[in-house]
Each structure stands twice: as C-alpha cells, then as structure tokens.
Amino acid sequence: SEEDFFYFSENAHRNAMTASHAVMKKQIDMKDYTSSMLLGKHVKLFDACPTCNGCAGVLLSRNGTLGQDPVISGSDSRIDNIHLKSRQNLLAMEALKTSVDFALKQAQVSKNDV
C-alpha cells in the first residue's frame, strides 16, 4: 500500500537531518507523505530526490580476502541530465556507465578482469 512506502522515505529524510552532505533536509510524517503529489504510478514526491537519479555500489574482492577490511581502490559518482526528455536514451544509464569506467580506471582494473 501507499503507507508501506512511507517508511523508506521517512527514514531517508530523518537520516538527512544529521548528514552534512544531504540534499533534502526535511523531516516528514505520514500525513506529509500521503498528501504529497504523485509523480508516477507508484512514486510520490517524497520518494524522489530532484537532484539525484540513483546510486549503485559494487565491491569486488579476490579469493582469500574474506574477513579482511576492504580497500577502496576506485570510486566515482555521476549524474545524468535531470530533465528526462533531454536524455538521448532513457534506458541507457550513461551516468552509470561513465562512473564504472572511471572507477575501474582508478583501480587499474578492466571490465575483462571482473
């Protein structure tokens, strides 16, 4: 139900209140959430951030490293054009592709190594 989705948004907004890098520092309650504008079939205003369009993380390890602290050898963050109509291909995920390429380059790893 609509209310079931509230808890994810409520948690994200609560965490934003204490995170210096957070974008949407606004605590919300169930009334705020349920009365907010519907952006899509199941997406309400407080489900989406207007300046970010997703995130992904991958942690790769070698055999024999289980239990050791990970070493981050490459990372990157990108954002695509926020205005969806301006994207050449809505399904291409260009920001993700570019981010992966830069992170792999930093880590001195190729896609063939993965």
Give me a quick take on this structure.
This protein has 114 residues and is mostly helical. 29% of the residues lie in helices and 0% in strands.
Describe the protein in words.
The chain has 114 residues and is mainly α. The protein has helices spanning 2-16, 30-34, 94-106. The radius of gyration is 18 Å and the shape is extended.
Question: Could you name the key traits of this structure?
Answer:
single chain, 114 residues, mainly alpha, 3 helices, 29% helix, extended
Largest sheet: none
**Shape summary:** extended
What is the assembly state of the chains in this entry?
single chain
Q: Radius of gyration in whole Å, from Cα?
A: 18 Å
Number of helices: 3
Strand content: under 5%
Broad structural category = mainly alpha
Q: Which whole number gives the mean pLDDT?
A: 81
Distance between the termini: 39 Å
SSE string: HHH
Report the helical percentage.
Answer: 25-40%
How is the secondary structure organized here?
Elements: H1 2-16, H2 30-34, H3 94-106
